[in-house]
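Um, can you check?
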Amino acid sequence: MLMRYWGRKPSKLINEVMSGISGTVIDPFGGAGSIALVSLNLGNKAIYLDINPYAWLVAFVNIVSIDAKEFKEKSDEVLENLSFVRKRKLRNDYLYYANGKPFWKKRNAERISDFFSKNNFTKLYSILKTIDKIEASPEVKIALYAAFCDSLFKSSKMKRKGAGSWGVPSYWIPREHNEINAIEAFRTSITRFYSYFKTNKGYKLGEDVKLLFRNALTFQYDKDVILFTDPPFFDEVQYTELSFFYWAWLRESEFTDVVERFTGQRLYFNSRDEIIVNPNRGKGYETYLKKLEKFFSKTRRVRSKYLLFHYDNESLKQKVIILAKEKWKDISVNEFELGNQRNIGPKGSKKYILIYSSRE
């Protein structure tokens, strides 16, 4: 995978389970596109859904075929034509919900702009505006925006010494931070992206894979697809909230216009429909389970269904199993504990259940 997301997929387990699957695989909680990519690598078609615009971007560059030579030429063009723009703050980038309460993962900063030095902010904004001006194929242009996003953490005050990625899923500035020059961070990102595009063939959008900016709870599922997914796990990671770090920058650019012209989809920031537990947004465990119940109901007609679920609470695990049995009827449940995987979530659990249901 080229770009990481906060979710931790048990890739070995997913590969083992999917090795016997043949058909079109749909993942309604697509995230970084891991499940879609595994299904494609195994010779299947894939349909990806997510309501998070940053997740969609991550999945795009992880999966879609992108011309490495053109990407290298256009990224060099960005660096050669940088024109510095005087700006110090992003618009409406405060770490608060519409109800006035702070982000659940907000620690010691008030807004996204606070995470960048004046020097790095100017450089980053200038890179973003230069990308806007570059004439390129839509695939390459989207990849340039992704490379820009990839450089943000490294250019921010959240970067600790020795840390290469955003490993702590919260908004905080450590006492000792070690951000690097924004232009060098972008240069490092485009080098890594170029290497990935050169060595990974990628897949054709619309032919091999569909990347849809859609809601899992309202999507109309074909009964003949194979459902394979892992929904957000309660309060483990605040995906949309953390993605705002990138969205606050992307909305200052022509990114959404480029995506809409290319795919016909208008990306926007949507936290209302997220299935998550977050007390500051009034989303408790009961709300989460009601939405999950709706998902089980929505997908009951699908003939083959696999749901991978990470848990750290036995009672909540049982409630999920009961919901699946009520809506999907005949199910089998297998339990796994992955000893060789990094800790997942604040409680560090490595336990999973795989719920399977098949209808003739």
